[in-house]
Specification:
By secondary structure, the protein is α/β, with parallel strands linked by helices. The protein has 9 helices and 8 strands.
């Protein structure tokens, strides 16, 4: 299994550029970053090179989404802003040689406008994939639970896969976040078994508080076994909020290493 550490949520006890070395010291061969845009590309490149790490995934800038707004990707009146965000993302994605770029659909605050937001999102998703595919980059998008983000446009795993099937774009895949979808009642292993070949990236955290495996109620021994034996070939991102210093939360990783082959 190919593991990544999400440096936006993990190792936050350290300054951002020091997190790369911490992840490498803990045996992660790769990292992912939600929004790297506050750090110059050259500084991230140097941190990756110094620690012999890959950066496998970043998100397209999402505007005001993380501050409670609707974001950019689905809002009909923000297509120009999204286009500018995609230009910025493309510069980072190419320079960092990422495998995937994730698009956050965002919120729709008016249910009566939902159909228009979905239409805008799907058009922006295709434009993103068309822009990134020539560089060998897969475009993913994810569903997010409505407890953490009320009004999120795509909050159901099946809805996410219906969009993948509708668009039929060779460079668009689902990003399956185990934490978000487990909170929404998704049967994680059944979903992975069924849709492995349509998933471009997997992320995980325990429920209900998004901590490390073992801090909540999910059976990660079973889930990791399911991923390992499925047709999924991509990276698996640890994207959790550590309940203490990150290095002290990695018992799950040691247990996983004892049971499956990990990429190092």
């Amino acid at each position: 299994m190919k593991l990544t550490a999400n440096l936006s949520l993990m190792y936050t006890e350290l300054p951002f550029l020091q997190r790369f070395a911490a992840a490498r010291n803990d045996g992660f061969p790769a990292v992912e970053i939600q929004f790297p845009y506050d750090t110059p590309i050259a500084a991230i490149q140097q941190a990756l090179a110094d620690n012999q790490l890959r950066c496998v995934l970043i998100n397209v800038p999402a505007g005001d989404l993380m501050a409670g707004g609707e974001g950019l990707a689905a809002v009909p009146g923000k297509t120009a802003e999204y286009a500018a965000a995609l230009v910025e993302c493309l510069a980072y994605a190419r320079a960092l040689k990422v495998s995937c770029v994730n698009v956050l659909p965002g919120r729709c605050d008016d249910e009566n406008k939902r159909v228009f937001y979905l239409d805008t999102f799907k058009k922006n998703l295709v434009k993103t994939a068309d822009s990134l595919a020539p560089f060998g980059i897969t475009t993913t998008f994810e569903a997010i639970n409505t407890r953490d983000m009320p009004g999120f446009l795509i909050s159901d795993a099946q809805q996410m896969m219906d969009i993948v099937d509708e668009l039929q774009h060779p460079a668009i895949r689902a990003q399956f976040d185990i934490y978000h979808m487990a909170l929404m009642g998704c049967k994680v292993c059944d979903f992975i078994d069924r849709y492995a070949e349509k998933i471009g990236h997997i992320q995980f955290a325990d429920i209900p508080q998004r901590g490390e495996p073992g801090s909540g109620t999910l059976d990660f021994a079973r889930i990791f076994r399911c991923i390992e034996t499925s047709a999924y070939q991509g990276w698996v991102g640890a994207e959790y909020k550590p309940t203490r210093d990150t290095r002290l939360t990695l018992q799950w990783k040691r247990e996983l290493a004892a049971s499956v082959a990990l990429c190092s």
